[in-house]
Structures are given as C-alpha cells and as structure tokens.
C-alpha cells in the first residue's frame, strides 16, 4: 500500500497549501471589488481554485486516509487527536467556501474577520495533523 500512502501525503500537502493560499485569493478579490468604481463581479479565480484544486485535494486526502485506516487497522490515541485536527481543516475549508459565496453575492461585511478566523482554524488543523503524525511513533495506545 505504499501508493495509497503516497496519494494521501500528496493530497494532504496540496490541500494544506490550498488552505493557506485561499485567504490571499479572497483578500485580493475583496480588494479588487472595493477598488472598482463600477458594478463588477468578483473575480472567478477564488471559486475556480476552491472547486478545482482545494476540494478535490481535500476529498482525495480524506478518502485515502480513510482507506489507510481501514486497510491497515490503525488505531490509537494519536488517531483520535489527528481526526480532530482534520475536522478543524474541514471547518476552515467550508468557511472559505462560504466566504467565496458571500463575495460573489456582494456581501463584504465581516469577510476579513471571518477570513482570519478560517485561516487560524486551518493553521491549527495543519499543525495538529503534522504534530500528531510525527508523535505517532511514541505509541499512544
């Protein structure tokens, strides 16, 4: 199953990178919208990036991680903590999608604060996953 672990790690790296890049895309889209003097739609890049890169990587990471768990019978205290960290990443991912929709609808109030909160959730999840995976050899059974 080395190919499955490789797929999981690659998808996780892409997803983590996307979660860190989405706030920059959203901030840029928000700034462009505020600077334009005419009625102009939100640039399509945040939605494209979210739908074409971030979401497929998240689904691949979660699916391959679930398969690794089921096929290898992994179980330990570290896994529960890692899954909590993954939930934080999923919450940040969902929040970014919600913010993209708000920008597309022309609702700008509170976008920056929510974007920072989502970024903090993403960073906490990413660091949590990394920390618990590296602590796994300590055998927290």
From TrEMBL:
Gene Ontology terms describing biological process: protoporphyrinogen IX biosynthetic process
InterPro entries: HemJ-like
Keywords carried by this UniProt record: Cell membrane, Heme, Iron, Membrane, Metal-binding, Oxidoreductase, Transmembrane, Transmembrane helix
Topology in the lipid bilayer: Multi-pass membrane protein
Localization: Cell membrane
Bilayer-spanning residue ranges: 6-27, 48-71, 77-101, 113-135
Involved pathway(s): Porphyrin-containing compound metabolism; protoporphyrin-IX biosynthesis; protoporphyrin-IX from protoporphyrinogen-IX: step 1/1
GO molecular function: metal ion binding; oxidoreductase activity
Signal sequence coordinates: none
The protein's required cofactors: heme b
Highest taxon listed in the record's lineage: Bacteria
Location (main, coarse): membrane
GO annotation, cellular component aspect: plasma membrane
Catalytic reaction annotation: protoporphyrinogen IX + 3 A = protoporphyrin IX + 3 AH2
Pfam families: UPF0093
Family: Belongs to the HemJ family.
Protein name (database record): Protoporphyrinogen IX oxidase
Species of provenance: Vreelandella nigrificans
């Amino acid at each position: 199953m080395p190919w499955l672990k490789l797929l999981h790690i690659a998808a996780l790296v892409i997803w983590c990178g996307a979660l860190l890049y989405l706030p920059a895309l959203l901030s840029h889209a928000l700034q462009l919208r505020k600077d334009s003097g005419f009625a102009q739609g939100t640039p399509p890049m945040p939605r494209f990036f979210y739908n074409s890169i971030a979401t497929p990587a998240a689904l691949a990471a979660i699916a391959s991680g679930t398969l690794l768990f089921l096929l290898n019978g992994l179980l330990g205290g570290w896994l529960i903590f890692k899954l909590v960290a993954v939930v934080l990443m999923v919450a940040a991912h969902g929040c970014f999608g919600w913010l993209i929709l708000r920008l597309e609808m022309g609702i700008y109030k509170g976008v920056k604060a929510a974007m920072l909160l989502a970024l903090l959730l993403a960073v906490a999840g990413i660091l949590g996953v990394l920390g618990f995976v590296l602590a796994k050899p300590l055998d927290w059974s």
